[in-house]
């Protein structure tokens, strides 16, 4: 069995690290990096830290409008498929890389396996929602992280090939958090940043609906951060950096510490030791939940509805007042965290077992 795996963004590198390890004994895997995330801090460092084999193909697509980026990926991935002639196309999540890989394979009659299938925010203005819905409807194997995701697919008439395998990100967190804690060069991140564990809040901002509001939207968010009693540490996404730096200079904010994007191991340590997470990221909401860190999601909806139980994750409008009130006054229910809707930490192996059983573990 030969599998072509398409990745392009840092959450996909993390997911691929654990799934590829499970697939290694049963197939030949050809890793394709679209270049959607191309900055070293957003890309190369992840391959180094997570011991992911270097991609066989780096398409170097880079940034651009959604249509331009997806179209260029589609053409280049098609060339890879024609060259490699895989048995399966494996894609992750909901990025433009996900959709481009799925479309290219589907049009060449290569069956698609979608890891993290069935997630829905029901906001079709989100590019991620468009990508995940379209990918699900052309996939042969749909690996759902939760029962809720499988139920979402059933509502859309998709039942064949659906497996509730658990969340591969839980596999990753369970493994790599221990790796991070045992690595002195990673645990030194607190001293390097001049912060103390549990005495800071961790924030990320990168989604288009956050940054499309321009400098005024960022200022409104930062005004809430400025009022909080703990320092807000903000690893800054390249898309957000110009607006964030301009807002800080323009308004003189002093409670926000912008830092360069960090590697996955440092990010796990920063997340697990924060007193609170504030983010517009889907993955970080969930990682905070895994590590029992309260989270404020700076969006009007979430695809990870399971995290909302017991106020461990709370949605906030992008207004100064709502962000501040949610951050300061949300109380979590410890008992609500006792149930684990995201599986048992063996999702990667279950995915490998399904593909091996369906396709046959015969190397080409």
Strand-helix topology:
Layout: E1 2-7, H1 10-23, E2 28-33, H2 44-49, E3 57-58, H3 66-84, E4 88-92, H4 96-107, E5 112-115, H5 127-137, E6 141-144, H6 147-155, E7 162-164, H7 168-181, H8 184-187, H9 189-193, E8 200-204, H10 208-211, H11 214-227, E9 231-235, H12 241-251, E10 256-259, H13 264-272, E11 276-279, H14 282-290, E12 295-297, E13 313-315, H15 320-329, H16 347-359
Helix pairs in contact: 1-7, 1-16, 3-4, 4-5, 7-13, 11-12, 11-15
GO molecular function: UDP-N-acetylglucosamine 2-epimerase activity
Keywords: Isomerase
InterPro entries: UDP_GlcNAc_Epimerase_2_dom, WecB-like
Q: What features would you describe in this structure?
A:
With 364 residues, this protein is of the alpha/beta class. It has 2 domains: 2-167 and 343-359, Rossmann fold (3-Layer(aba) Sandwich); 184-337, Glycogen Phosphorylase B (Rossmann fold, 3-Layer(aba) Sandwich). Helix content is 45%, strand content 15%. It has a 7-stranded parallel β-sheet, sandwiched between helices. Strands 10-9-8-11-12-13 form a 6-stranded parallel β-sheet, with helices on both faces. α3 crosses α4, α4 (96-107) runs parallel beside α5 and α7 crosses α13 (264-272). It is globular, with a radius of gyration of 20 Å. The N and C termini lie close together (6 Å). The relative contact order is 0.13. The mean pLDDT is 92.
